[in-house]
Amino acid sequence: MANLIEIKNVSHAYRTKAGPLPVLDGLEIAVPEGEFAAVVGPSGCGKSTLTRLVAGLMKPDSGEVWLHGERVTTPRKTVGMAFQNPVLLEWRSILDNVILPLEIVAPRMGQKDRVARAMQLLEMVGLAGFEGKRPSQLSGGMRQRASLCRAIVHKPDVLIMDEPFGALDNFTREDLWQTMRDLRAAEPFTCVLITHDLRESVFLGDQVIVLSGRPARTQHVLTVDLPADRTLDVLYEPKAQDMLHLLRDQIRIAQGRDGAEGAH
Amino acid sequence: MELAQKIAVPLAAMVLFLMAWEGLVWVNGWPNYKMAAPSDLPPAFWKFRWLFLEMGWQTLWRTVLGLGLAVIFGTMIGMVMGFSRIARDGLYPLLVGFNAIPKATLVPVISLIFIGQHDFNTVLMAFLISFFPIAVSVGIGLSTLEPEYRDILRSLGASRLTIFRKIALPKTLPEFFGALKVSVTLAFIGTNLVEIVSPHGRGLGALFKSGETNGDYPLMFAVLIALAVLGIVLYYGVLVLERIFAGWAERPQS
Hints:
Distance between the termini of chain A: 42 Å
Structural class of chain A: alpha/beta
Radius of gyration of chain B: 22 Å
Oligomer: heterodimer
């Protein structure tokens, strides 16, 4: 099994009042099983559209999206999602929030097993003792941790994250990068991470995919050959610094292709 | 201590209000056909105590039934408007227009269509006057659901019904109860409107009318007080339900 996720020559345009707005243009992405792909690109270049395509929430105008050697046309149970907004359900406790996907995906699973599974993850991300709290009683970073647990509680093959750490302060964000790294070591999954943060892409990614400005196509793919158990210090070493410089240059090129988009 | 304060303060306010009322009547020397004093009320209540119980019950069950129908119908309309853009565009002007009609003008219309059906007419009016806020709040609550909420379940292949049951419905509850607090008062008004206007009616409204016909002014004022008490009971009934079903929406007290 070579590639778990394959996006082949995908193009898509949104229909707007001002006519069709092309967002993806011949996009090519391949993520081998167990790999972590970080996707970076200028604002509004169609990155979020990419997440919806992989999740099967929408169909592209042309091109194909493949998961596990099967063409994606509808949502699948083997996907987990996390967004910038943790979208926790206020009326449920943290524990019940994490259990939610199991209620859909594994309706026959016993409540005891569900709780055990959720608690295992909550402990891993450092939320043990908070399972009975309401989301509003937790800090932003803790809520995002709970959201991550919910995204992988049903052991999805693919985790899709759309700027999950974007709204957090820098130190909290770095904490969550390490949590993410530890979660991956504990339970392997294939991951697509949309991000604006180049350091984040290098710290977490096995490959960093740079998208061009809108309409997005694959502009550059950087292989991050750093050890899997990398620490934050790695980011300050020459090897990582070189990668960051390269990515920075690529982003500049990407913005140049669509000057108006790069202006804000 | 806190509980004592919670009870003592409203109680003291009520006593002050009654004293001011009594004082106002006493100072001006008004006869009871101009304005009854609070001290006139207990005899009136006592004299007609069985009538008050019977009529109060009539008003109560018809209001609650009308409100119940409004909840069912309003929620259904709200769901249709919340999920379908076309339904929203089509229904909204109709609803706003219907809501703009002063409901008192509907009383003779209804009494003519369903002549003599006093219970039915009363419940119908309570329903008609109170479903609008519920429909609008449910509709807005559903249509403003952030897409991410839907996507976390949709990406798992959950059906629309499951998404509605697990996410949309509970998320709309705070708005729903906000509307229900308005609707319960409106339904109460609707009930009394029909009770007062209908000849040979029943309920507290009819008792009020008979007080007027017989020139028993203390009875009329006693009915007003009974209506206020019933209104308070209904309102706090909704409040209790809100605590139970949407208590999570309250900000934790710090």
